[in-house]
What does this fold into?
Amino acid sequence: MKSPVHLNALRAFEASARHQSFSAAAAELHVTPAAVGQLVRTLEEWLGTPLFHRGTSGRVRLVPTEAAERALPEIRAGFDRLALGLERLKERSSNGVLTVTVSPAFAARWLLPRIERFQAACPDTDVRLDTNLKPVDFVAQRIDIGVRYGTGSWPGLVAEKLMDEEVFPVCSPRLLREHGHLQKPGDLARETLIHDLSMDSHTGFPTWETWLQKAGVLEVATARGMKINNSAAVLQAAIDARGIALARSVMARDDLATGHLVRLFPEITLVSPLAYYVVYRAECSSLPRLVAFRDWLRKEAAA
It folds into this structure.
């Protein structure tokens, strides 16, 4: 025989058992206590057995019967599965919220100046940025897609190369005017060098020492200078004429284009062994809003 019990009755029963109160359950479900009580009674009538020991001690306190206690774990698991099913249906929609994980510096220097173009192209998708210096758990934190910097290998994630990167010295036009002697790499010996400490954890990332060795300069003391643990702040310090920064080309691209920064000694090219990758879980690769954002990232990177 088909069950006549409405899903709302099971929800009212579960909430009442958890709170041991019709009133508290009603507040959670946004209905009246009388409505919750009626739903529970409907379920009890269909089952032919009570679900609560109803006692009074100043106020009504609901205590589930033994049979109800045995059934509750399965009912709660069922609600959890239903909620997960609804999430899966929402994921397949082209609209909704897209959660993107990127580093704070990448967000500030590359993504945020461009994000309006994605929002114009996909107005029904709301982007939620998760800015984190450390890799995050895509499943636990419900991340849809991200951009990571490294060698392209992250367990459990598909990684597609987005952009390669060069590393080179930059400074502000003001500093260049005031320090007109910057004619050759050896002139850096008299300047304040700005170091990016945020890249220390990336094995193989070029440092000032690496760049100067390629330039054939040995007399510059690379241990001195200003040390900052954020790539965006490194560039801002250079823009403010605090010294010469060893810039990452992707981060510095817009500031070079607008003239806020000037590249020094462009004849010396140092390619980073690391690159930017678009990352996501394989099982989510066909989600419409993920596909739209991934394709937009590729277009922006190519431009």
Observations:
- Residues 190 and 220 are 8 Å apart (CA to CA).
